[in-house]
Amino acid sequence: MTNRRAKARADIVLGEDWDRPHSSVETELKAARARRGLISLNRSPLARKIILFNVLAMVVLVAGVMYLNPFRESMVAQRERALAVEVQLIAEVLEASMTATGGTDLAANDGRDAANILGAMNLSDGIDVFVYALPDRLVTSTAMVARNPARPVRGLDPRQPDTLLITDFLNSVWSGLSRLLTGAGTPQPVQTAEGLAASLLPATADGATVLSRGTIASGTLYAAATPVFAPDGQLGIVVITTAAGEIDHLARAEREQMLQMFVVALLVSIVLSLVLASTIAHPLADLAAAAELGRDKNARKMSPTRVRIPDLTGRPDEIGRLSGALRGMVSALYDRIDANEQFAADVSHEIKNPLASLRSAVGTMRLAKTEDQRNRLLEVIEHDVQRLDRLVSDISNASRLDSELVKEEEEEFDLVRTLQNLSHYHGEEAGRKGVDFITDLPPDPIRISGLEGRLAQVFVNLLSNAISFCDTGDAVRLWARRRENRVLIVVEDTGPGIPESALTKVFNRFYSERPEQQFGNHSGLGLAISKQIVEAHGGVIWAENIRPTAADADAGSEPLGARFVVGLPI
Fold first, then answer.
1. H or E segment at 565?
2. Residue 543 has what DSSP assignment?
3. Which residue, among 544, 548, 568, has the nearest Cα to 557 in the 3D structure?
4. Which of 505, 522, 527, 509 lies closest to 343 in space, CA to CA?
5. Where would I find the beta strands (DSSP E) of 15-126?
6. The whole model's pTM is what?
7. In this model, does residue 14 exceed pLDDT 50?
8. What is the mean pLDDT of the segment spanning 132-154?
9. Which of 294, 389, 304 is nearest to 333 (CA)?
10. Residue 58's pLDDT is what?
11. In the beta sheet, which residues pair with residue 569?
């Protein structure tokens, strides 16, 4: 009990108080923060998910670029078109030269005429040319003749970027994936460039230019073949092949740049993911740790102070909202605990009074000598028993009220009709006592949403209290008015009024300001329950005395009666 009262006296820490080390809860949370860092995020499932999803997004992006692979395919297409044009130009040069010299056979003079023509061309170093006589005899090639030095080209950078070992490895992987995903035709494996050239000879039989590609040990090469014609028919075939790996090297350089950007983007993504995970996972871990330290199984770790929820409401995001909601929830929870403890203390105090009276009456009963004394004592005992029964019933209703207000479903109903039904019943009750009962209700319905039975309980309490304080010749008035988005229900009586010191106390539990002859007939919970119901509906209730309205009336004069006002939203 001592620890419980100590906890009840402790206040929840809000706002700037979070930085004050007052409990073992704060000590443990601060120790956890000190041990925490970016590396410790690998123990956070949320942090791992954030990093994993960001890295997966980057990998999907790179895979999409590799799937499209526009750079390499465009280079291949441009190179093949250039080869087709170049092989046709070489074939036309051979045709013109042979026609000018009157030659009719590329293999004449052991192919020296074709070799001389080929050697006279300023061919670039990046290609190999093969000249075949029909049907498939190799007459000459660039490997058999001495080339004239190529003419220099200004503005062309001959340097090629170096690639990393990891790039070479990824290039092989990406090349395989690219061929698999794009469905591009796989080049045929060949032994030499001459072998690829020889394989194209049958395809030129119809006089068309043929393109093909193949692979050798040093990479992929591309070839173009076209026939050579004379006026009297076909002389032979010219085949051009590129240097092995020419396109591969350019694609590798492009992939090197892509890899560098991917690595940089990946590192940036990981760092940003760690920062993001830190700003999300760490505050959530603090909130979870503070909540976990308040559970029953960790009660031994708790000092006699309350659970402190970190104040993160300064963050303009959902975590800030969560922190504010948790702090508000914990504050409301401790307020409810305080209210329950205070209620329990009040109940204990209220029950002790009739119990003490009963104990005294029972003890006196043994000493009573006359029948009249015993009858009076029995009346006291009966009165106290009825008082206890009423008190226990009201306490039971009050303790169940919160849960019942949450469980019951609100419905729309006509407030005017409800008040009319109540006024009919209480009008008869007031008539039996000689009290005038006056109603002034609007003719039109006023529909509100709420618990009709609970609100009826409020007005029953107010009307019953008003009638109980009136004597013969007094009056009770019930009236209601609609005011924009709310409705006011007022219960007035011409009784003795409420002492000024009690106006703020009448809604307290077990407070009762009754005439002496009504002692013990009321538990003092009616108005407290009424206030709880009204506030649960988003309304307000207050009490005031009715004062004379004349200008010359004495401000300290006796009140003309009491007035209770209930305001409910529409």
1. strand 561-569
2. E
3. 548
4. 509
5. none
6. 0.46
7. no
8. 78
9. 294
10. 78
11. 486
- Higher-pLDDT residue of 475 and 63 is 475
Number of Cβ within 10 Å of residue 485's Cβ equals 7
One-letter-per-residue 3-state SS of 215-257: EECCEEEEEEEEEEEECCEEEEEEEEEECCCHHHHHHHHHHHH
Closest to 475 in 3D by CA, of 427, 403, 511, 521: 427
Q: Give the amino acid at 381.
A: I
Contact yes or no for 236/28 (Cβ under 8 A):
no
Cα 465 to Cα 215, 218, 354, 434, 505, distances in angstroms: 104, 105, 22, 15, 15
Token pair of 52 as six digits: 């994993």
The whole-angstrom separation of Cα 143 and Cα 115 is 10
pLDDT at 541: 92
For 531, half-sphere exposure in the C-beta direction (CA atoms, 13 angstrom radius) is 15
CA distances to 95, 151, 196, 312, 412 from 235, rounded to whole Å, are 8, 30, 21, 88, 102
* Exposure of 541 in the CB half-sphere (CA atoms within 13 A): 25
**Scanning the structure block, which residue is given the tokens 């659970």?**
307
More confident residue, 110 or 61: 61
Return the closest-CA partner of residue 422 out of 451, 461, 474: 461
Q: Percent of the chain, pLDDT > 70? A: 70
CA gap 58, 60 in Å, rounded: 5
